[in-house]
Write a structure and sequence with these properties.
It is a single chain. By secondary structure, this protein is α+β, with helices and mostly antiparallel strands. 33% of the residues lie in helices and 25% in strands. The chain is built from ten helices and eleven strands. Helix 2 packs across helix 4.
Length: 306
Amino acid sequence: MRWRVQVRVPASTANLGPGFDTIGMAFQLYTTIRMRVADEPQVILYGEELQGLPTDTSNLVYRMAELIFAKANMEMPALCIEMKSEVPLTRGLGSSAAAIIGGLVAANYLAGDPFTKEEIFFMATELEGHPDNVGASLFGGIVIAVMEKERVPYIKVLPQPDLKALAVIPNFMLSTEKARGVLPEAYSRKDAVHSVSHASLLAAALATGQYEMLADAMKDRLHQPYRMDLVPGMATLLEESHHYGALGTALSGAGPTVISLLKGDEEKLTRFFVDTLLEHGITAQTMSLTPDCVGVQISEEIDNSF
């Protein structure tokens, strides 16, 4: 049993168009969690991004710690958990996945590492229902994964050093439940073939670094067409962004964030993003993102700069 730990977990984007519930990519935008044994349970949250979240044992991170100790058949001590985050909540940048991975990894460390990374990945995937965001937050880079009954096979791909992303984050929240609620129960064979072919091309382009293929590869028919009305202006962003320097553009996770992969200058693309949403009455912030290639980081050295 260890007494304290700090973990830093990267944010992520999921899907990248047709890689629905399968492909995730990590970014250098972090949730930091300090966890230590205490006399009584306590959850302390810092910063605007975490406002409104529970500060008792119902907090998601605390519940992940309880899960680890229960699965390890160990008596769990009272914990003090402190957390800060750079990741906007419910915007499609993997905030809940980061909390899940952070809680599981930190508690696993305190418990003496009873579970491997792959076992934690399986737990997190079961909780999330898909491996994309949690895989990226855990392993870093680009993670391509599928769900099996007792394991989650995955491949990690490292992006080229000059690849970056630009996210436009509308100033409203969109729950994953609402975004999933607009999806159909069945698809045509034509749309299924489109999905398989484009997801295959996307995975190949990311793995080989042939990013010039992304404009075609990131086209989707499984979820983005059905979510257009949830993010006014999204159709224009997806269809026109390549004229402003984007290699490819997609809804980030369930949205409302839209994200472009690109190289080079992003000034024209930033202006296009903001102006397009303003034309639809939506204010937004943009965020330049650099891929994280490491994933969750564990340290006994506690950062006191919260």
